[in-house]
Amino acid sequence: MAVQFGPTGHVDTFARDHLPPPADWPAFDSPLSYPAQLNSAVALLDTTANGPHGERPALHFEGQTITYRALLAQANRIAHVLVADLGVLPGNRVLLRGPNNPMLVAAWFAVLKAGAIAVATMPLLRARELTSVMTKARVTVALCDGRFADEMHAAAEQVRASDAGLDPRVCRYHAGDHPDTLEAISAGKPETFTNVATASDDVALIAFTSGSTGRAKGTMHMHRDVLAICDCFSAHILQPTADDVFCGTPPLGFTFALGGLVLFPFRVGASTVLIEQPSPNGLLDAIQRYRVSILFTAPTMYRRLTSMVGDYDLSSLTKCVSAGETLPLPTYDAWQEATGIKLIDGIGATEMLHIFISAAGDDIRPGATGKPIFGYEARVVDEDGNPLPPGSVGRLAVRGPTGCRYLDDPDRQHTYVQHGWNLTGDMYLMDADGYFHYQARADDMIISSGYNIAGPEIENVLREHPKVQECAVVGLPDTARGHVVAAFIVLRDPADATAETVSELQNFVKAEIAPYKYPRVIEFVTALPYTETGKLQRFRLRQSGD
User: Which of 147, 199, 254, 417 has its CA 20 to 30 A from that of 318?
Assistant: First the structure.
């Protein structure tokens, strides 16, 4: 495949310089076309805000309604801060940290309008995780919610103290009446901004996934990719209109949420309800209060909501999307019985930016993920990449308008992209009618409550504890969460095998990395199972936990 780059709008060409060689890219055979010069923030925000529908609601948040025109003004003011006060150049990477609220959305658009690259992170990440992301992406500026600033400042200090040669600046918002907050600095800025003329193949965002090894991996997506997922999954599966109201639970650091809560509604001029800390009751209350019509969340949340829906008016709901983990048939059936709505299942990947297999309406086949959506191809292949016949279990391979381009990670690139296809790490079966049925993960990734959790990352943290001699982490089936993180630990002193040590180790992990990754199950063992060649037999640990 020959890749021809157009002229870049980036002054800092770090991202383009660290793309994989074009020969290592997946094949892109897209029915979509976009102009050579494209800033996706302009297409998604400015077009509506400056048009006849500029006073339509864009965001609903804690009783406030923010119009497209007001959001554009805020994004433009922040863009001025980035350029004039924080020295951001087109192509610089700007990290975003905070829960789902209007300031985070305005900041995301501001970064792209300034020609920079957005690196959105989940607010629960700890300093060590943020340090890895900042170093890998060579982040120059971070915009951080003040309530989450401690870990951010700690990470910035760690980056400065390292040999990375970086001196990242941190600017806080929602941090009180201090003169150095983003709100204070942006207050006097103009409400108009001259958008940077980025190229459609300039990198717009770097999304990080821990991967099965736990090592931070940045996936790079271009401005045209941002619009492509809107014009594929959203346009052909969701088919929203400007009158729809979106809502959901995932943090915007997930590309699942970025698409479902920002990109898809903004592409058609619809609105979104943002919730910072979504509980089942809080989510149901928001659906009822704002007359939400399109919902995005994981199967775990649908299971929790099912028994509660009778206490709320959910008559406004028309479409409910499930992704982030496999959708069990009992969850699908229970939700349909409780609400009358067929869940739209889907599989996506950070590497692919969003969902590429799904089905809606009468095309939904309960128990199946669906078929390749408009613009994408998928097949089941053997270990050599050869397509397998219907009814066979093999590796899922996919290609389309979006695809995997890791940031400076050739080994992982060669694993994920083979023969022009993206290999997602999932095992699937395709039936005779072309529907894809999930079977299992092909790697050691643990998917719990919609979160992707890498066992080796947790192992590395546990090994730092003085009581731990050796450990292994796997996922065990769980009816509520799909899977839970389970740690099998060999202690230095067997006498420490107590309930107190379990709590101590769990709290240790929570303090070091995102709390959702902590091992909910800890089992003390005298030895771990290894092969004669020294390879850990994780399958035996999974069997012992059944």
Answer: 254
